[in-house]
Write a structure and sequence with these properties.
Layout lengths: L1 H16 L26 H7 L11
Length: about 60
């Protein structure tokens, strides 16, 4: 959750500098739930991909 919030804060700051305050964020963290991780964390590559932040951009209705 901390990683997701860090990414959100970075994006929010950059958007604010560009004058954009009309962007809403929804943050979800799945790092604590081993069942949701796509890889087993056995190898460094798996740990890397399990720590990825995914950003979906959804246009407002």
């Amino acid at each position: 959750m901390a990683r997701a919030n860090d990414v959100k804060n970075i994006m929010q700051d950059a958007l604010a500098k560009a004058g954009r305050t009309d962007v809403a964020f929804e943050i979800y963290g799945f790092g604590e739930d081993q069942k949701l991780s796509p890889f087993d964390n056995q190898y460094p590559e798996e740990r890397f991909y399990n720590r990825t932040v995914v950003i979906d951009i959804v246009p407002a209705n």
